[in-house]
């Protein structure tokens, strides 16, 4: 039910924006009562932020599934980049609206500090997972100087750049984006691939 509500809300937010989407409209679209809606989401900002949290969690879940496979790690990183770019392009309209109007949700959010801390923990965990995964293909001198988490943050930051490129709509060449990210990683932190 929670995902069903999020799907309906995402559709409404994408079409009408944050300001013009009410909890009444979401309940109506879901064909549920408003009290039932509030059982799942205490407020419109919580629901709105829940959409972005779900998107991030889905992206990380797919990344973890790929990292668990017995494949060449360089190919896995390329697949993670592919999935990230595909998901960003698939949700582009929602993400554009979210970037444009998230300040309204943040302003309405009762406990923004809690949300910010949760987002920082999520980013830190993503960086830790990426860093631990890449540890054995990182240049030794890089690993001596920087923590695995900082190394993972490099990949996260490059993927975040792909997010902004997608939202702006200025760069839609998926393969070229992937090639650039891989080149930056290989020229910066990754050891040369075994031949």
Largest sheet: none
Binned strand content = under 5%
Structure summary, number of beta strands: 0
Query: Overall 3D geometry?
Result: elongated
Model description:
There is one protein chain. By secondary structure, the protein is mainly alpha-helical. The chain is elongated and about 55 Å long. The longest helix has 24 residues. Helix content is 79%, strand content 0%. The protein has ten helices and no strands. It folds into two domains: 41 residues, Arc Repressor Mutant, subunit A (Orthogonal Bundle), CATH 1.10.10; 140 residues, Tetracycline Repressor, domain 2.
Spell out the blueprint of helices and strands.
Layout: H1 2-16, H2 23-30, H3 34-40, H4 44-67, H5 73-90, H6 92-108, H7 112-134, H8 140-145, H9 148-168, H10 174-188
Helix pairs in contact: 1-2, 1-4, 1-6, 4-5, 4-6, 4-7, 5-9, 5-10, 7-9
């Amino acid at each position: 039910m929670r995902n069903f509500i999020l799907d309906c809300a995402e559709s409404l937010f994408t079409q009408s924006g944050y300001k013009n989407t009410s909890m009444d409209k979401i309940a109506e679209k879901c064909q549920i009562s408003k009290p039932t809606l509030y059982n799942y989401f205490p407020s419109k900002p919580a629901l709105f932020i829940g959409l972005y949290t779900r998107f991030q969690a889905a992206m990380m879940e797919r990344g973890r599934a790929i990292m668990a496979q017995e494949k060449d790690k360089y190919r896995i990183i390329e697949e993670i980049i592919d999935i990230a770019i595909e998901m960003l392009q698939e949700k582009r309209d929602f993400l554009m609206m979210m970037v444009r109007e998230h300040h309204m949700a943040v302003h309405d959010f009762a406990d923004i500090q809690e949300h910010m801390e949760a987002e920082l923990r999520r980013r830190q965990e993503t960086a830790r997972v990426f860093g631990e995964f890449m540890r054995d293909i990182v240049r030794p001198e890089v690993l001596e100087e920087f923590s695995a988490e900082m190394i993972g943050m490099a990949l996260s930051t490059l993927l975040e750049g792909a997010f902004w490129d997608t939202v702006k709509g200025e760069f839609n060449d998926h393969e070229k984006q992937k090639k650039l990210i891989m080149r930056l990683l290989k020229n910066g932190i990754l050891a040369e691939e075994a031949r």
